[in-house]
């Protein structure tokens, strides 16, 4: 049975168990969030022992080369000595510049982070409440358009990090954040390709950044954005998006509600159903899917069946933390 050595302690790793599970079971506090290899919160560094390749998937080459790996994805075949990552693994300091309500459960948080450097609209960052507890939030800002990084944070009942952001975080506070992560962003590979953007709840955040970034980069093809919520008061940035669609003939914005009768330009139904009703075939489209994991999972399947190529499906499921 492989053993995990951390500091002066040794933890046995049961058959098929990940390093994260073994350490957590042994009472060690390791930050984690998605437990699916997405958020990179559980980053550790191996100082001795072989690192399974699968546990380095998605990491930068520079991190791989120095033995960093994702503890939630690491099922070791042999014993390893590991350590917590140093600050060089990517933690930065950001200052809160504004907190603005977007609707009754979502706030926009503007962060100034001089060390962030390049990022892409639609990527996400991890926000640390303290040394061990962090959550991922998508970037609604676009680097060339917005002075600050912007997040849209929905308050989850009993939520440790979203509750802290809503109730305690103040303008002027400093918070630790990760470098930008994720592959759900726009690139100007084919400016005429039609784009389909589907999001639920605060899943609008990355889409808002991607949409504006695509226009800024000169995207010419049609862009159809479907944003869904159960009720009208769960939608937000409605006027801004209507104005954007008014200014750009290629942009089509469809706010959708699934649990109440629609009024005005609101559409009735779930975003995926409404979008596929409008476009039953999406061969040749590039699609971006963000928000509730069930929506993202089912949209991937149904868009593929409707003709979208797998390489053209970009997604960020807002996976809940298991920790
Ligand atoms: C790549 C990625 C990007 C993300 N981007 C965003 C974003 O832009 N905006 C945003 O608001 N969130 C986003 N999330 C979700 C976010 O990371 C947190 O999961 C969320 O804020 C809840 O964390 P918490 O600590 O407040 O709740 P926790 O303390 O983890 O959970 C408290 C309780 O609430 C439940 N719970 C957790 N999440 C939800 C939920 N969504 N709905 C209902 N119950 C829930 C838990 O099961 C638990 O019982 C993203 C997640 C990922 C993986
Ligand atoms: S990548 Fe391991 S907890 Fe998210």
Automatic annotation (TrEMBL):
It comes from the Bacteria. Pfam families: FAD_binding_6, Fer2, NAD_binding_1. PROSITE patterns: 2FE2S_FER_2 (PS51085), FAD_FR (PS51384). Its cofactor is [2Fe-2S] cluster. GO terms for molecular function: iron-sulfur cluster binding; oxidoreductase activity. PANTHER family: NADH OXIDOREDUCTASE HCR, PROTEIN RFBI. This is Oxygenase.
């Amino acid at each position: 049975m492989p053993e995990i050595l951390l500091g002066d302690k040794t933890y046995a790793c049961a058959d098929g168990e990940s390093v994260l599970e073994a350490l957590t079971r042994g009472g060690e506090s390791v930050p984690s969030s998605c437990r699916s290899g997405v958020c990179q919160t559980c980053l550790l560094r191996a100082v001795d022992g072989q690192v399974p390749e699968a546990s380095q998937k998605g990491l930068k080459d520079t991190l791989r080369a120095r033995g960093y790996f994702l503890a939630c994805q690491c099922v070791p075949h042999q014993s390893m000595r590991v350590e917590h990552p140093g600050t060089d693994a990517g933690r930065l300091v950001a200052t809160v510049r504004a907190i603005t309500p977007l609707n009754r459960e979502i706030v926009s948080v503007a962060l100034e982070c001089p060390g962030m450097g390049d990022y892409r609209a639609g990527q996400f960052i991890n926000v640390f409440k303290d040394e061990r507890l962090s959550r991922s939030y998508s970037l609604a800002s676009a680097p060339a358009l917005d002075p600050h990084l912007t997040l849209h944070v929905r308050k989850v009942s009993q939520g440790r990090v979203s509750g802290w952001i809503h109730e305690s975080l103040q303008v002027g506070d400093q918070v630790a954040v990760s470098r930008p992560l994720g592959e759900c962003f726009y690139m100007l590979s084919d400016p005429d390709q039609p784009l389909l953007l589907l999001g639920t709840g605060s899943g609008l955040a990355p889409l808002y950044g991607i949409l504006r970034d695509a226009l800024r980069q000169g995207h010419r093809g049609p862009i159809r954005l479907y944003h869904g919520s159960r009720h009208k008061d769960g939608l937000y940035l409605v006027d801004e998006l209507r104005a954007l669609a008014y200014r750009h003939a290629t942009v089509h914005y469809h706010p959708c509600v699934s649990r109440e009768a629609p009024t005005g330009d609101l559409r009735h139904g779930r975003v995926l159903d409404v979008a596929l009703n409008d476009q039953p075939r999406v061969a040749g489209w590039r699609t971006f899917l963000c928000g509730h994991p069930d929506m993202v999972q089912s949209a991937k399947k149904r868009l593929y069946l409707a003709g979208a190529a797998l390489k053209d499906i970009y997604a960020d499921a807002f996976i809940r933390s298991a920790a």
